[in-house]
From TrEMBL, chains A, B:
Binds 1 divalent metal cation per subunit. Can use either Co(2+) or Zn(2+). Its cofactor is NAD(+); Co(2+); Zn(2+). GO terms for molecular function: 3-dehydroquinate synthase activity; metal ion binding; nucleotide binding. Belongs to the sugar phosphate cyclases superfamily. Dehydroquinate synthase family. It catalyses: 7-phospho-2-dehydro-3-deoxy-D-arabino-heptonate = 3-dehydroquinate + phosphate. The keyword Membrane does not apply. It comes from Nitratireductor basaltis. The gene is aroB. It comes from the Bacteria. It is found in: Cytoplasm. Catalyzes the conversion of 3-deoxy-D-arabino-heptulosonate 7-phosphate (DAHP) to dehydroquinate (DHQ). NAD(+) binds at residues 115-119, 139-140, 152, 161. It is an enzyme of class 4 (lyase). This is 3-dehydroquinate synthase.
């Protein structure tokens, strides 16, 4: 795609959160202009770029050139790739790197990477000097449509995923859709699970469009930009109404309660299961569990599973290779999930495609029976 | 003092921050009723009590009994006393303790201790599950009049003090003025420096009252409660207008820019200098530097120094025992202080008692000359 076409295929989603509002700019090739965009939003700021070794190999030079061209001084802090970097140890490393660079509150931390780098760098920027400026340049589909909207940041604990963090909104998100061409097909599919999630939460028309358009989205071009933009808009609409997850925002956890339990069960081993795959299985489980509770039709659950399977995503616990713990243990992982409230199990269930809702007081016994019925043979 | 007199000598300061508003209850003996007070504000919450070994010896049993009487389940997390506990290592320890107790967002972290415990427990409560409820029971004068108002939490870095943290407001502060009887005279005096600070910032009448009443405040009784309440109200008024320190709140740093540099210079060795003593010296330096710059009268600087010296506080760099680094090094500590903005030196200076202001672009050369003129002989 040439520069002109790129400019024509560029769009901006505004996240409206009062004085914490910011733009998500989406389009192919826009990383090359990142320095100028940043300097317009944060004139005079110096930058600490946080990235991982894999992403640095693909995109760091482009970003450094863009920052140099705009006269934005910068230091680079590199962490190892993978979920294990969301730890206290690496948090301290990033925080120390930012302080060693003598950045002040008015300067900026840039996250160049996927969800792990975004969560880690965002958390660090939220606690250095009690909150510095933060700019996200998400390089995975998952990060572009999920982590880049809503300000959740954090690290993992031995007690569970994302249990430690802050809400800290970025000042700007630059989502270069062409960067996704460097993803493996498996990584792209995993991110696609979160795209489909927005249709399943409250936009049945979007889910219908995805069923028709998914191959164009995977191929790149205008359909990809549209899918990212509609996902970001969908999440922004929810976050604007409930920034700190006191209610509706929990809908974004569709598929995540089952999903997190499966990630814990596989020890966050990305060879066996990555986050988007866990969400894919979790969303199908949420629809099938809803059907079992007579809340939704079996047809809708089958339609969800058929689409996710068509794009190549796992949809059943039995799709996970290797041993898994027994159902009681899985239930205990679900109960430690942070969306538990006062011991009652809270799930996102559904009345059908695009009709998800927050179900409180779901009986643990029903969940256990469902898990047992679905035990891989 | 009997219970009845205690009840009559009890007062509440309201900190008005919209949905983050909270009460500071002040009076002698009110720790014994802490469980009921907490349960009224946070019904059904379980608690993690964070304290240090010294404070635990004096007050933990009283708090545990109060919680038991109110049916508030609780776990206790104890850290070593002293500034060194404001570290990543102890932060992780407290966070792990809260998660191991399986507390949820609707539960509560209680800080029972001085400024160190408040800053550490407050930070932990601000990042577990991206923000849990927090209640402060400050046990030092410094914590009752300073740390308990305004929601600043944090730990130290090798790069400087309080450089890592979040803004996280408590739901309730219980300031039992009788607990201060367990402080050493030196600890009480150090806290008193922050009381005097409120007069020096913008309340000359309060400073005048302190000059007359300080012995009653040290002795306990109604004057002590009044001094604590007026200090909290004074800080609350400023914080309500500027919660996140984008402007006026910086006035609360009167004496702190010089003070932090001296704390760094003495390696946070409490045998040589504690925070309130550093603030005392820093406030006198701020007044004398202001007089040197022809911003305030020498008489006012002398009056400030005379009062602080009368209560037994250090007022000069020469009051610090042992070797200190040279003036260039002290200046470099000042320049790393987080109140630096884009390389310019920002100080809180004054036009006289109760007339402090934020001075930006203070020439580093003038500060250096002032430090050299005051070199201990």
């Amino acid at each position: 795609m040439n520069e002109q076409a790129a400019a024509g295929n560029q769009t901006t989603v505004k996240v409206g959160l009062g004085e914490r509002s910011y733009d998500i700019v989406i389009g192919p090739g826009i990383l090359r202009d990142a320095g100028n965009r940043l300097a317009r939003v944060l004139p005079g700021a110096r930058a600490a770029v946080v990235t991982d070794e894999t992403v640095a190999g693909f995109h760091l030079d482009t970003l450094k050139t863009a920052l140099d061209n705009a006269g934005v001084g910068h230091e680079v802090i590199t962490v190892p790739p993978g979920e294990k970097s969301k730890s206290f140890e690496h948090l301290q490393e990033v925080v120390d790197g930012i302080l060693a660079a003598r950045l002040e509150r008015a300067d900026v931390v840039i996250a160049l990477g996927g969800g792990v780098v975004g969560d880690l760098a965002g958390f660090a920027s939220g606690i250095v000097r009690r909150g510095m400026n933060f700019v996200q340049i998400p390089t995975s589909l998952l990060a572009q449509v999920d982590s880049s909207v809503g300000g959740k940041t954090g690290i993992n604990s031995t007690h569970g995923k994302n249990l430690i963090g802050v809400f800290h909104q970025p000042k700007l998100v630059i989502a270069d859709s062409a960067l996704l061409d460097t993803l493996t097909p498996r990584e792209f599919r995993a991110g696609y699970a979160e795209v489909a999630k927005y249709g399943l939460i409250n936009q049945p028309d979007f889910f219908g469009w995805l069923e028709k358009s998914w191959e164009d989205i995977f191929a790149g071009g205008p359909a990809r930009v549209e899918a990212i933009a509609r996902s970001c808009q969908s999440k922004a609409d929810i976050v604007e109404r409930d920034e700190r997850e006191s209610g509706e925002r929990a809908l974004l956890n569709l598929g995540h309660t089952f999903g997190h339990a499966l990630e814990t069960a596989t020890g966050y081993d990305s060879k066996r299961l990555v986050h988007g795959e866990a969400v894919s299985i979790g969303m199908v489980m949420a629809h099938r569990f809803s059907a079992r509770m007579n809340l939704a039709s079996v047809d809708d659950a089958q339609r969800v599973e058929a689409h996710l399977r068509e794009v190549g995503l796992p949809t059943r616990v039995s799709d996970i290779r290797g041993e898994l713990p027994d159902e009681e243990t899985l239930l205990s992982y679900i109960a430690q999930d942070k969306k538990v409230s006062r011991g009652a199990l809270t799930f996102i269930l559904t009345n059908g495609i695009g009709r998800s809702f927050i179900a409180r007081d779901v009986p643990a016994s029903e969940v256990l029976s469902f898990l047992r019925e679905n035990r891989p043979q």
